[in-house]
Design a protein that fits this description.
This protein has four helices and two strands. With 100 residues, the chain is mostly helical. Strands 1-2 form a two-stranded antiparallel sheet. The termini are far apart. The relative contact order is 0.18.
Length: 100
């Protein structure tokens, strides 16, 4: 089933659960649902995040973990909100991963 993100839906901030270790200590403590990947529940987020672990362990780029977690749309962030900044980090992380 394919879902698309709609900006018309109400976005709810949820605390990042303790079990989502990947997204702790990265500038924010809450994320929005639904997120940019179409996840509507925290269980969907947790299931998807487990597939990110091998990519993060490759250490392609220092911002890989931040980038992946930003797809869960932080509720408040001081340095990770600019789309142009996010796009630049994404491009750098992608290039670094491609070289490995």
């Amino acid at each position: 089933m394919t879902r698309s993100f709609s900006t018309r839906r109400k976005n709810n901030c949820k605390p990042i659960p303790e079990s989502l270790h990947l997204c702790h200590d990265i500038e924010y403590t809450e994320m929005r649902l639904p997120n940019l990947l179409g996840h509507e529940s925290m269980s969907e987020v947790l299931q998807q995040a487990s597939s990110w672990i091998p990519l993060v362990k490759k250490q392609c780029h220092p911002d890989t973990r931040k980038f992946l977690c930003s797809c869960s749309r932080p509720c408040a962030s001081t340095t990770w909100t600019s789309p142009s900044s996010r796009a630049g980090r994404c491009a750098r992380a992608s290039r670094a991963a491609a070289r490995r």
